[in-house]
Design brief:
114 residues; alpha+beta; 40% helix; 12% strand; thiol protease; Ubiquitin-like protease family profile domain-containing protein
């Protein structure tokens, strides 16, 4: 099967943070993303990307909500992104997933974020 996770690149804080709703840690994904930034900088800007001061982080299962089934990982990844982009705490629960799914369908159909 496929498992969805989220990685967030924050240029202001110089961090790449990995979020996994099943508690996994994937520092390799963060390293690959940092390498991608270096390659993109060379390709698009024709200059070296300065990686000094950048931190690669993996959120621990105690720090973020965890899924209790094998089917909500995509919704968890979307909710992590939703909270991060709105600068809100990541404190939702598994029990709210049916509501979040319905809300996402509404947002897509109405082309409007709530």
């Amino acid at each position: 099967g496929v498992h969805w996770c989220l990685a967030v690149t924050d240029f202001r804080k110089k961090t790449i943070t990995y979020y996994d709703s099943m508690g996994g840690s994937n520092s390799e994904a963060c390293k690959i993303l940092l390498q991608y930034l270096k390659q993109e900088s060379l390709d698009k800007k024709r200059k070296e990307f300065d990686t000094n001061g950048w931190m690669l982080l993996c959120k621990r299962s105690q720090e973020i909500p965890q899924q209790m089934n094998g089917s909500d990982c995509g919704m968890f990844a979307c909710k992590y992104a939703d909270c991060i982009t709105k600068d809100k705490p990541i404190n939702f629960t598994q029990q709210r997933m049916p509501y979040f799914r319905k809300r996402m369908v509404w947002e897509i159909l109405h082309r409007k974020l709530l």
